[in-house]
Amino acid sequence: MTQRLQTLVVVLLVAVAAIATLVVVRAFPPASKRPLRTLEAARMADFEARFDAARDSTRLLLLLSPT
Amino acid sequence: MRGASALQGLLTELPDRPVRVLAVWEPVLPTDKGPPTARVLSRLEDPRVEQYWDPGRVLSGRILAAAHRVPAFALFSGQLDAAWDLAAVYPPGVRWQGGVPTPVYCGNPVVGSLDSLRAHLAVAVALPSGP
Questions:
Q1: Which of A4, A27, B4, B82 reaches 20 to 30 Å from B116, CA-CA?
Q2: pTM (2 d.p.)
Q3: What ipTM describes this predicted complex?
Q4: Domain membership flag for residue B131
Q5: With an 8 Å Cβ cutoff, are B20 and A36 in contact?
Q6: Chain B residues near residue A44 by CB distance under 8 angstroms
């Protein structure tokens, strides 16, 4: 095996490893640090209480689409 | 989703300031098949953020219902489906009594409202805390 071929093999292996790492990271993203609570009509009072509990702070209410 | 990243940027500009964020995700687009993924949630990584999934668009319905009485939400008065891609600013002291409280500012869409949001947040965080 020539030195050029060896270099090519190493480069290919590194590229494959990088792509595999990228795929794994995308497939298993780090878990969010904070929980995702479900908002339902029956539990709206809890949400309102959370809003009021932070009344010493400026609050920002966001409504967003996941995609 | 870009709005979440933009908001995270605003929060980064206000480190250690008394700001709390209630981020509510709701299905609006045909691609919204379920709750936000961990990757999407991580766009709002600030510890001052609480995140909710609202599959029945309960909060959106409350905002639409309030659109006729809350000037800041009037921009949604003609929408029958959902209020979304919005950021409403509440200064200290405001409480949730009855319907959705009146914000001092409501930006929609979020990405297009960043400058106004930044200005209103700066004013609000400078106000004294409520009773």
A1: B82
A2: 0.80
A3: 0.90
A4: no
A5: no
A6: 58-59, 62
